[in-house]
């Protein structure tokens, strides 16, 4: 088999692989009635988290669930739904985790407060350590004999 044939077979395999097809599906040109709809779609796909990938937005993800979420956002945007209504739908279906910026609520308060709590705890530990270091150690208690011996050593006798 020549290099030319091997190269063609490799390109054919890549073209037929599902990963490439999904990647192409992400970049497909979508048609919108207005520029506002396109912007809403772009904003929402960058603000909603893929619940399978967990660290990617649905805009970035190749997961099938992310593709389904993009299709839903596209369809709801084309149907004239507001961004808030679409986000509410996604939250009702997938929970607050689907948002990259969850709102401040009772169930997310610890999430929002944790950086400040960790910083405050670290500051408290640092302050305690510095306070202990700055405190002079208690001087040892010597007997009269030990003091006399220390005094003789100090004078060189």
TrEMBL record:
Write the record's keywords in alphabetical order, separated by commas.
Cytochrome c-type biogenesis, Heme, Iron, Membrane, Metal-binding, Signal, Transmembrane, Transmembrane helix
Question: Which is an annotated GO molecular function term of this record?
Answer: metal ion binding
Q: Which GO terms describe its cellular component?
A: plasma membrane
CcmH/CycL/Ccl2/NrfF N-terminal domain mapped to chain residues: 22-153
Q: Which domain of life is it from?
A: Bacteria
Which Pfam families does the annotation name? CcmH
Q: Which residues cross the membrane?
A: 109-127
Q: Which InterPro entries does UniProt cross-reference here? A: C-type_cytochrome_biogenesis (IPR051263), CcmH/CycL/Ccl2/NrfF_N (IPR005616), CcmH/CycL/NrfF/Ccl2_sf (IPR038297)
Q: Gene3D superfamilies attached here?
A: Cytochrome C biogenesis protein
Q: Where is the signal peptide?
A: 1-23
Kindly list the biological process annotations in GO that this record carries: cytochrome complex assembly
- Which family does the record assign? Belongs to the CcmH/CycL/Ccl2/NrfF family.
Function per UniProt: Possible subunit of a heme lyase.
The name this protein carries in UniProt is Cytochrome c-type biogenesis protein
Give the species: Halomonas campaniensis
């Amino acid at each position: 088999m020549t290099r030319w044939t091997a190269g063609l077979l490799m390109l054919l395999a890549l073209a037929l692989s599902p990963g490439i097809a999904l990647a192409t599906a992400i970049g497909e040109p979508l048609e919108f009635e207005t520029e506002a709809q396109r912007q809403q779609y772009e904003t929402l796909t960058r603000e909603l988290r893929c619940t399978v990938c967990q660290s990617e937005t649905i805009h970035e993800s190749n997961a099938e669930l992310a593709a389904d979420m993009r299709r839903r956002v596209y369809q709801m945007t084309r149907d004239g739904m507001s961004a808030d209504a679409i986000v509410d739908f996604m939250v009702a279906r997938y929970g607050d985790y689907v948002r990259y910026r969850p709102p401040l609520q009772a169930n997310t308060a610890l999430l929002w407060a944790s950086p400040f709590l960790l910083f405050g705890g670290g500051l408290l530990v640092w302050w305690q350590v510095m306070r202990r270091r700055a405190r002079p150690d208690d001087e040892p208690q010597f007997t009269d004999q030990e003091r006399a011996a220390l005094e003789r050593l100090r004078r060189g006798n």
